[in-house]
Specification:
Elements: H1 3-79, H2 81-104
């Protein structure tokens, strides 16, 4: 076998080894990307679940508070309707004044 043939064989072996190394590196990188994407997807799903639970709890609390407020105002109206009407009118006027002030700015 001549030197040229040996050099060609060595070059082929080096090329095969380099190809194998590149293929293994690409496979590892692909696995790492897939793992990272899976972890990100799971984290996002967990976050969405938590946000959904918190929103549901907040809506429930707001509904309860509104129902309690309505029950209180109703009971106060039964005791003294004039006072409740006057307070409501004062609140409407106060909101109107606040809106007017904010519009001037």
């Amino acid at each position: 076998m001549s030197d040229i043939d040996r050099n060609i064989d060595a070059a082929k072996a080096t090329a095969d080894a380099a190809k194998t190394t590149v293929e293994e590196t690409v496979a590892r990188a692909s696995d790492a990307v897939n793992d990272t994407a899976q972890q990100a997807t799971e984290a996002a799903a967990d976050a969405i679940g938590t946000i959904s639970e918190q929103a549901t709890a907040a809506v429930s609390t707001a509904k309860d508070a509104t129902a309690d407020g309505v029950a209180y105002v109703t009971s106060q109206y039964r005791e003294n309707p004039g006072r409740v009407i006057a307070i409501g009118a004062g609140a409407v006027i106060a909101v109107g004044v606040i809106i007017a002030v904010l519009r001037r700015r």
